[in-house]
Design brief:
It is built from 16 helices and 7 strands.
Length: 390
């Protein structure tokens, strides 16, 4: 692979030993794991806990010499996470795809880590190669996080660059890299359909993402055939429950009523941890059909992706209940996870309730071909902000 991609690509096999040595020696990683697995001991006796964490990691990662050695070590952790946080993980559509081909999976996006992790889990168990994952550099606030992500076949999307000229250059490199992965390496790639998660629960592809794909198209090349060459497959991930629904509601409220939302230091890392371990209920992954139309422009491709994502989204009672509640029907839910959601909404601050409900209700809007619900559509969303978040 050309050196042009060295700053963004996943690590190669010959780089793995040195990177692992660096990661295992990183004190910030020991502190982060300590705060996660034993917060009390991490505060009171970090001098005791963190050396033990380092020894434990060294034991877990022993014998890893290649990238393909790394991911199998993670499967046990992921299985335990899925067993504790997912009631049932189902999948559809893979029977129509060819394991020997490389696909560009363009996915709706609800969770930073678990979306591509569950895509990888289902692909691996169906005999497909796992994906190279597009991840924004805004999530790589710590060097050890960047190292671990690139060991796990992630490549970096440089969103933090300043200036239009620099942004265009980075987008062109990213475009050439993705095209190289699909056409030359025959590798699978995962990328979200938009920058950031769909915090309001309404999945919509940003045409700028499609425009990035085509930046590497030769001037004399037909647009439609170039898009078809990328083997784009829409992927729909449907969660029964979002463990980050309240934090997303706070962010949406702040953006609408306070002029913006400022993230706390390393908030994304905390969101990753909660998203991984929090209860999700049932989850369904639907792999769509390869896009093979005679597309003329980026918006045509984005619309084709949206059509499949909305078609394949699986509704749960949590979605139906939230939609009915926002429209004045206060019938009590019967499904256990929907009941728990209703209980959490009931004790949430009034100003945040509509934002929580819309995250679930907008899936119903998508399925019906209707626009996203917004504050203007709420009959009477309270505006006071004088009580504490629950």
């Amino acid at each position: 692979m050309t050196a042009e991609f060295d700053d963004i690509r996943p690590f190669n096999d010959d780089e793995v030993p040195l990177v692992l040595k660096r990661v295992l020696a990183d004190p910030e990683m020991h502190a982060a794991i300590g705060a996660w697995v034993a917060p009390g001991l991490n505060r009171k006796a970090p001098w005791l806990l963190r050396p033990l964490i380092r020894l434990g990691l060294a034991w877990q990662f022993r014998g890893i010499r290649r990238v393909d050695d790394f991911q199998p070590r993670l499967r046990g952790y992921l299985k335990r996470i899925l067993d504790k946080s997912v009631a049932d993980l189902t999948v559809s559509g893979l029977e129509s795809l060819d394991p020997t081909k490389g696909y560009l999976f363009v996915s709706n996006h609800r969770d930073i880590v678990m979306d591509p992790a569950m895509v990888n889990w289902t692909l691996y168990h169906a005999g497909f190669q796992t994906v190279r994952i597009a991840i924004g550099d805004n999530l790589l606030s710590k060097p050890f996080v960047s190292d671990l992500m690139r060991l796990n076949k992630s490549f970096i999307v440089r969103r933090s660059v300043k200036g239009m000229k620099a942004k265009l250059k980075e987008a062109q490199i990213l475009s050439r890299y993705i095209h190289h992965c699909i056409t030359e390496d025959k590798a699978n790639v995962w990328i979200a359909q938009r920058e950031g998660r769909a915090k309001d629960g309404y999945d919509k592809t940003n045409p700028a993402v499609i425009g990035m794909f085509s930046l590497s198209k030769p001037k004399d090349r037909d647009y439609a055939s170039y898009i078809r060459e990328l083997n784009i497959v829409p992927v729909t991930i449907s969660y029964e429950v979002d463990p980050l629904d309240l934090s997303k509601a706070r962010e949406l409220y702040a953006q609408e009523h306070k002029g913006g939302y400022k993230k706390k230091a390393h908030e994304d890392v905390q969101s990753i941890a909660r998203g991984m371990t929090g209860w999700k209920g049932r989850v369904h992954l639907a792999f769509g059909e390869v896009l093979n139309g005679d597309y003329e422009k980026d918006t045509d491709v984005a619309a084709a992706i949206d059509a499949q994502v909305h078609k394949h989204y699986r509704l749960y009672e949590s979605n139906e209940w939230a939609h009915a509640t926002l429209h004045g029907d206060h019938t009590e839910p019967t499904n256990a996870d929907a009941v728990k959601l209703a209980e959490r909404v009931a004790v949430t601050r009034d100003t945040l309730k509509p934002y929580m409900l819309r995250q679930y209700a907008n899936a119903v809007q998508m399925k019906r071909g209707l626009p996203a619900l917004t504050s203007a559509m709420d009959a009477a969303a309270p505006k006071s902000d004088d009580t504490k978040d629950q």
